[in-house]
Amino acid sequence: MSTSRFDTLPAAFQHTAAIDPDATALRTPGDAQTITWREYADQVRAVAAGLSGLGVRRGDTVALMMSNRVEFYPLEVGAQHVGATSFSVYNTLSPDQLAHVLGNAGTRVVICEPQYAKLVASAGVQLEHIVCVDDAPEGTLSVAELLAAAPDGFDFEAAWRAVRPDDVATLIYTSGTTGAPKGVETTHAALLFQVHGIADILGIEFGDTITSFMPTAHIADRLTALYVQEVLGTQVTSVSDPKQIATALAELRPTVWGAVPRVWEKLKAAIEFKVAAEPDEARRQGMQWALSVAAARSRHQLAGEPVPDELAAEWARADELVLSKLRGALGLDRVRWALSGAAPIPPQTLAFFAGLGIPIAEIWGMSELACICSVSHPRDAKLGSVGKLLPGMESRVADDGELQVRGPLVMKGYRGRPEQTAEAVDAEGWLRTGDIISLDAEGYLTVVDRKKEMIINAAGKNMSPTNIENAVKAATPLIGAMAVIGDGKPYNTALIVLDAESVEPYARAHGLPDASPAALSIDPGVIAAIRAGVAQGNNALSRVEQLKRFRILPTFWEAGGDEVTLTLKLKRRVIAAKYTAEIDDLYAANPHEAILSPR
């Protein structure tokens, strides 16, 4: 745990880099690339000097657009050291989206991979420089040319010491579920408060190991793999292809790790598939016994009850014989704790990993709060709760159940949008989070849903669509995404999309020649599996919440597409408009034959 406190990211980085200069700070799987803290600090100094030579000054904006790679870090941190506001953009943005983000940010310099140079140049934003890593297409600068631009006598020390705590360190663009993304201005002070706040609770140490595999434009990756590293000295393994995260985990065996709920759900499905596919009957029965013991223990944990001594002893045997080996196969046998955030995770998924011996701390936060606002150490956590507010943050609950918070994490504002900033943060500094959250007597928070996404059915019953979706998705790995429909309706229905990564293994295992979503959406076996999952999910819901009908769509929903944001949030209004005909069928008196009841 860090004991030294600094008020800017450059000051923290300079201290951290000097703790053990020869220790590895950055790496890729298999140590194909490694950078020590000494090398990292030298590169940061060189990049800062080069950017200064290009005219970048304190308060200017530098954008980065690249995949997860170790070269990103010195470039980003170098920009911080000249006082620039440095941020990342999603690689999948359309030209119009990129133009909006770069223009709104007031970007002067973009650092990108060559394949994005043409897109950046065509965005129509007046940029001073485009710098490319790897190769430099015509009209761009190479990193070598950037470094060569360093002026004689550049005072690196003076540059980073001039950075102030209330300077905007980064911009985080919201996912844009209801309109154009807004640029959240987050200061050095907020990020330092954030890092130390979670470190004091979770205990993060110099040399702890973690992966970076989510997009660097996502605040979750920026916090856990960039800002935490700068301040506390973690070692980051950069995984360029998120589909390779399972392999990277097994190789790295990280000490701390975090992921969004969908990744945890996929890991859970992989374990269940591994057990079901075990060819040796005795081994398979042993694994099934161990998972049943794990499930029995987690049921008590989920209910907040003490685990009976006899069950605890049986779990210890299961752990020694089987569960520890499953953790090892995942690469999570050294994890002291793990995080889940960005969206609510099904309690069943949390319970599954708790039973497996992998403690997950569910967190709650938002871009407007520098990422994490509430968390508890797994030993203090209540399964299904998102923990307690970080010390120093205040909360209150409005009459309609919306949580409002105030304190050092609250954003400076939305860039260039004073009216929307005033709508989000009142004159007394209270941020309207938009989340319906319950607070128990001990201060633990439980997320109900986004206020604007709550369903009120025809009978006036309030329901959370996310809660319903999670109950069903927890029952079958075949579902990649689903949208519950029911606002103003007599009963709930759902549009269901198959999981793009699960369909090919499913098709192979069942001898199906066509693994396209169009073919599988009408396959009797797939329909039966989804129907069973919906029925199982319904059993965990109240009668009024249960799904009466569903439709499997013949398509996938891609991140950044029409239906799902880049941070995997549903665009519910867009979905409702795009699939009007399918939704009408769900409520027809004599539904189309593709509409199937779960019962």
TrEMBL record:
* Gene Ontology molecular-function annotations: long-chain fatty acid-CoA ligase activity
List, alphabetically, the SUPFAM superfamilies matched.
Acetyl-CoA synthetase-like
Any GO CC annotation of this UniProt entry: membrane
Instruction: Decide whether keyword Ligase is in the record.
Output: yes
Keywords on record: Fatty acid metabolism, Ligase, Lipid metabolism
CDD domains noted in UniProt: VL_LC_FACS_like
| Pfam families (UniProt xref) | AMP-binding (PF00501), AMP-binding_C_3 (PF23562)
The residues covered by the AMP-dependent synthetase/ligase domain are 13-414
Please report which protein family the annotation says this sequence is part of: Belongs to the ATP-dependent AMP-binding enzyme family.
The protein's name is Acyl-CoA synthetase
Q: Can you name the source organism?
A: Nocardia mangyaensis
